[in-house]
Design a protein that fits this description.
Structural class of chain B: mainly beta
Number of strands of chain B: 11
Number of helices of chain B: 0
Order of helices and strands of chain B: EEEEEEEEEEE
Distance between the termini of chain B: 37 Å
Shape of chain B: globular
Radius of gyration of chain B: 13 Å
Largest sheet of chain A: 6 strands, mixed
Strand content of chain B: over 45%
Number of helices of chain A: 0
Mean pLDDT of chain A: 93
Helix content of chain B: under 10%
Order of helices and strands of chain A: EEEEEEEEEEEE
Shape of chain A: globular
Low-confidence stretches of chain A: none
Oligomer: heterodimer
Chain lengths: 113, 116
């Protein structure tokens, strides 16, 4: 079975500062990796995904993530955040051989002016 | 192209009752997945339907059941409701066999179920 650990439950940061949201996973099989964002009272929106190939993945809204197989990590980064980036962020993994997508508990990013 | 829509948006039920939640998938999508998101937690996979058949199931008891219709819309049914079933229920649609092929899943806004 797979599991996902998001190391920070809350990350406060000032506007225009860089941010990194950390995600580690464990799995006995190869996985796809995802980051989703959830705004209040809304569903999840895909930010980016790693399926194969280049380990540096660029997504929407200026976010990027790097897959590190040896450290089983998929940290999300943005060089300069905006107030509008305030939301809950979820890391997720899905094994190549079934549909059981596992989500982390989420990281609440709060961007302060 | 319409997005994923879920109904109702909010629902209050009494313990022991049954509930049906509905999801209309995005145009052109034939795969629907359901997730339960308890307060302060990440979504948990309930099951997935592909072309009207169950195509994977998470660790949920049989009182959680579903259907997918020929137009690819879907229902989630929960029998004998328990207080711990209170959560946001999310539906996601995708094209093809969903996550297995790495296809992007588009989420609805969810149904907030409260069991009292």
């Amino acid at each position: 079975a797979q599991s996902v650990t998001q190391l920070d439950s809350q990350v406060p940061v000032f506007e225009e500062a860089p941010v990194e949201l950390r995600c580690n996973y464990s799995s006995s099989v190869s996985v796809y990796l995802f980051w989703y964002v959830q705004y209040p009272n809304q569903g999840l929106q895909l930010l980016l995904k790693y399926l194969s190939g280049s380990t540096l993945v660029k997504g929407i809204n200026g976010f990027e993530a790097e897959f590190n197989k040896s450290q089983t990590s998929f940290h999300l980064r943005k060089p300069s955040v905006h107030i509008s980036d305030t939301a809950e962020y979820f890391c997720a993994v899905s094994p190549h051989n079934n549909n059981d997508m596992r989500f982390g508990a989420g990281t609440r990013l709060t961007v302060k002016p | 192209e319409t997005g994923v829509t879920q109904s109702p948006t909010h629902l209050i039920k009494t313990r022991g009752q049954q509930v049906t939640l509905r999801c209309s998938s995005q145009s052109g999508h034939n795969t629907v997945s359901w997730y339960q998101q308890a307060l302060g937690q990440g979504p948990q996979f309930i099951f997935q339907y592909y072309r009207e058949e169950e195509n994977g199931r998470g660790n949920f008891p049989p009182r959680f059941s579903g259907l997918q219709f020929p137009n690819y819309s879907s229902e989630l049914n929960v029998n004998a409701l328990e207080l711990d079933d209170s959560a946001l229920y999310l539906c996601a649609s995708s094209r093809g066999q969903g996550i297995v092929k790495g296809a992007e899943a588009f989420f609805g806004q969810g149904t907030r179920l409260t069991v009292v």
